[in-house]
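User: Fold this; tokens only.

Assistant: Input:
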Amino acid sequence: MSQLNFVQQFVKRFENEQATSRTGDSATEKWATLRDTMHRTTLATFGRKTSKSYDWFEAKSAEMATVIVAKRAALAEYKQSPSKRNLQILWAARSNAHQTARRCTNEYWTELSETIETVAITGNIRGMYDGIKTARGPAQNKTAHLKYTTGEVIEDQEQQMERWAERYSDLYSRQNVVTTANLLTICFPYITEHLFMSAFCLGQIYLSIYLSIYLSIYLSIYLLLSYLTDQ
């Protein structure tokens, strides 16, 4: 079902809910009724968002649930009876929750990294890629609406295939003319560069040969003079 159909369903349901709902006289009651109606209609139409990723919070939910409950209890106690003591308890609960969250996050990623490393060392390629997939999360498949040249969205599948055929027929039916000047413009810098590099390499080779010859001659003369001097 397309997004447009969901929007139309939401509008119809919201109008029906508004027609049957009872609102109070005050602005607060009217706003509460409108808020609840929008929330209820949105859930009935679009549903709740479900996450497919298995992250650190789900892996450490048992440990995180305890500190979250303690933090909520401290917050409720502070709202019920605001005092300096309850505020300090709330700060301590929040600090404990933050520290626990950081520790659980580090432990989760450390354990996952060690698992991937272990299966990679043992040669379990499938397990290694499964671990990498878990670390990266689910892949997001993004699609865009196919439209006519006028900008109208194409819903029918057969018309979509016809639009693709029209698109590529127009794309591949164009004749591209390449002139000699264009070829020279593209190829001349490449050829010039390679000729220059070839000449440079040959020059280096010749220079190395000449230097080796001169050094060998100089070394021979030096050894000969040293021998004659000793004699």
